[in-house]
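Handoff note, outgoing to incoming analyst
You'll be picking up this chain. Sequence as last confirmed:
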Amino acid sequence: MAQGTAELRLGDTPPQLVYGFIRQNIQPGPSVSLKCVASGNPTPNIKWTLDGYPLPLNERFVIGQYVPMYGDVISHVNITSVHVQEGGTYQCSAVNRVGEASHSAQLNVYGKLHIGQIVAARWLFQGDRELPINRRHLVFPNNTLVIEKVQSGVDNGVYRCDATDKQARTASGTAHVNVMVPPKITPFNFRSDLHLGERVGVQCVVSKGDPPLDVYWLKDGHKLGVHDGQVEGEGIVLRTLDQFTSVLSIGALALTHGGNYTCQARNNAALATHTAPLSVNGMAMATHDNSAPQFVTQEMTHFK
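Most recent structure output, in case you need it:
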């Protein structure tokens, strides 16, 4: 009889945001402070984004985080003399090993130049290349830029819009574009004639997708927890060959190994999934007489 052990950590709780910043509408110039407070066990870590991207690492943004005596974690972002281009959707995300919680709100910074007053505008790519450069770039009369069939490594970069109003006042706004290729998994399958005690292995190869990549396995929809490459109590071994390849192997098949095995690959663009069923045929001696032995064959397959 196979036996296994597992560690249960009592008291773990997912993060909860107990305080979040509010939506603000301001003019350029004043200092702004955004704060989030989160609880959870273990103590969560708080990360900040602006319009879905990590906050720039420069002197304009000062990020602080500390844990007071009562245990909640407090994180804040301070912006000195806020600029128009620093407006947008700010989000704080509290993360620990149990889960994640997020809060977001809009910081609207209204400058002297408003969209309705623009009389001239132009788009620049990487500082000096005026758009459109090719047929994939479309600039509409309302100064909206559309890029069709975006390409990784070609369309990445900084886009800037320069606008002028009737009083010849100018303003600029920039956007950082990072085009990522989503992951793609090469299909794999288990043999259909596997029996008790045999060895089996499959390889999950992420054939496409920009790093960083997170590759992991599930059995019947449950993530396989690994300690030193072993799935505790399951007789399953997981090995990472490189950042694009993971191998699942079983040294001696048991009926309990039957089920649906899923490889998932995730990057910042998307999640890719491939599932393969594993059927284990069991063979055991049932009865015998003076004639040839009789056998009973069992098959166990789990489908979600």
